[in-house]
């Protein structure tokens, strides 16, 4: 699903004839253009059209990301606009079509600034999936948002400082994990929440996730690393920030499931995938993290491993956004070798046969939500398809609506009500489902599901662990 553009921006060409021959076979002294009108410059034999004799002129000057070909592919069908959850609830948001190809053309002009509405894009990337012409909409949005933040946003503004803190969640989480219980209490203390909203614009209605008393990487080190050695079946686990600092049980489930299938699990050094940074236009921050990640993951790939991620936003970032936005050596290898964790097992193992022999201690019912970033990878039905025939499991898909939180979007005071309005359909479907436990692969979708319904939320890997390992 990754789209590539020419670095040199060569998206135009000359259409002409060999010159001299008419359709009726008569010779002409002057060549004709495509429209049948004789060329005033003498056709392709003219020295004025010799590529060595003149310098081409670009109508739109190219930049670091020349997306002219993608912009020209848009024929204004508005499929992207109708799929956009933000446009559905925010009448002032112009939608993906404007933010993508239209704004791309506009900002080629020297006197045109990026429209501030680009900061209202939640980076759900549903527009990519909706476009019938494969216009690189989210790539255009990321470029425009990065340019707006870099050149137009006031760096001392509350909004910029707040967004930078949210985008660099890994930094905050590392600090909080030094004293996890104290941090969890302090960040959810009523007066502190009120102060955060007034000073930083972080909605007091949101509950901060608790920090684990033992991070995944601490558990991995104390465990002694991989318990299976198998050079023929290796995976490099990109756990991401949330599974490390907040829900290590997801990472532990991943390790146990993969070791059950005979895989040697590697846990290379890594930083944030960059997903929240892309969403907030912090492209320089994202690149710094990407450089570390690519270097570590390329080394693991060289050792025979494929890369797996338990978070669908992380896998999408490594697969799509990295090669779209950065030119780091080895980045294409990382993209081509990255998979979502359940997806990889479905491709390479007989999960259906394994699950047919499984027995759960208790019957379990789940309301499953497919994250937008899972849909963009063609994974919207994988959990339902994996568990639908397992004895003792009821898995109900709660529909294709967006959860509304979209990473950091729902963590901004001015976006909170819109995020809840977007998620209303999902909340309603969850409450109508048979089970009162939610399921999703995305940690921020899990936050929104729990926030809107009060349900406990699990990851598909946790259910898979219960079924095949326990």
TrEMBL record:
GO MF annotation list: 4 iron, 4 sulfur cluster binding; metal ion binding; oxidoreductase activity
Comp. bias regions, Basic and acidic residues: 19-32
Keywords: 4Fe-4S, Iron, Iron-sulfur, Metal-binding, Repeat
Region (Disordered) location: 1-63
4Fe-4S ferredoxin-type domain segment(s): 110-143
Any single GO BP term: anaerobic respiration
The UniProt record lists the keyword DNA damage: no
GO cellular component term of the entry, any: membrane
NCBIfam families, sorted: glycerol3P_GlpC (TIGR03379), PRK11168.1 (NF008369)
Name recorded for this polypeptide: sn-glycerol-3-phosphate dehydrogenase subunit C
Protein species of origin: Halorubrum lipolyticum DSM 21995
């Amino acid at each position: 699903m990754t789209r590539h553009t020419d670095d040199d921006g060569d998206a135009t060409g000359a259409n002409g004839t060999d010159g001299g021959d008419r359709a009726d076979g008569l010779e002409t002294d002057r060549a004709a253009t495509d429209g049948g009108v004789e060329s005033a410059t003498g056709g392709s034999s003219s020295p004025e059209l010799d590529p060595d004799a003149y310098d081409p002129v670009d109508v739109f000057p190219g930049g670091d990301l020349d997306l002219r070909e993608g912009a020209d592919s848009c024929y204004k069908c508005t499929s992207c606009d109708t799929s956009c959850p933000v446009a559905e609830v925010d009448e002032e948001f112009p939608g993906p079509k404007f933010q993508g190809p239209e704004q791309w053309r506009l900002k080629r002009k020297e006197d045109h600034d990026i429209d501030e509405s680009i900061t209202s894009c939640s980076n759900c990337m549903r527009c990519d999936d909706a476009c019938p012409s494969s216009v690189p909409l989210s790539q255009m949005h990321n470029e425009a948002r990065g340019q707006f933040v870099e050149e137009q946003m006031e760096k001392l503004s509350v909004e910029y400082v707040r967004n930078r803190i949210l985008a660099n969640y890994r930094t905050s989480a590392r600090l909080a994990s030094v004293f996890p219980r104290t941090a969890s209490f302090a960040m959810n203390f009523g007066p502190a929440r009120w102060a955060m909203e007034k000073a930083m614009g972080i909605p007091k209605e949101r509950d901060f996730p608790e920090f684990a008393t033992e991070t995944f990487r601490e558990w991995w080190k104390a465990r002694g690393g991989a318990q299976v050695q198998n050079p023929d079946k290796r995976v490099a686990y990109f756990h991401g920030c949330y599974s490390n600092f907040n829900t290590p049980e997801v990472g532990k489930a991943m390790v146990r499931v993969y070791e059950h299938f005979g895989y040697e699990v590697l846990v290379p050094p890594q930083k944030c995938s960059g997903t929240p940074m892309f969403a907030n236009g912090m492209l320089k921050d994202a690149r710094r993290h990407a450089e570390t990640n690519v270097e570590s993951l390329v080394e693991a790939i060289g050792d025979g491993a494929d890369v797996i991620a338990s978070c669908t936003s992380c896998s999408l970032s490594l697969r799509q956004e990295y090669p779209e936005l950065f030119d780091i050596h080895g980045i294409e290898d990382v993209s081509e070798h990255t998979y979502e964790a359940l997806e990889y097992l479905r491709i390479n193992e007989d999960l259906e046969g394994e699950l047919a022999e499984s027995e759960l201690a208790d019957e379990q019912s789940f309301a499953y939500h497919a994250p937008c970033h899972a849909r963009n990878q063609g994974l919207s039905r994988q959990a339902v398809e994996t568990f639908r025939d397992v004895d003792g499991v009821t898995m109900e898909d709660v529909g294709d609506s967006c959860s509304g939180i979209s990473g950091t979007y729902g963590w901004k005071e001015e976006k909170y009500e819109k995020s809840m309005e977007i998620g209303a359909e999902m909340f309603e479907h969850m409450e109508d489902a048979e089970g009162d436990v939610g399921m999703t692969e995305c940690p921020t979708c899990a936050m929104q599901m729990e926030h809107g319904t009060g349900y406990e939320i699990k990851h598909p890997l946790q259910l898979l662990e219960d079924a095949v390992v326990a």
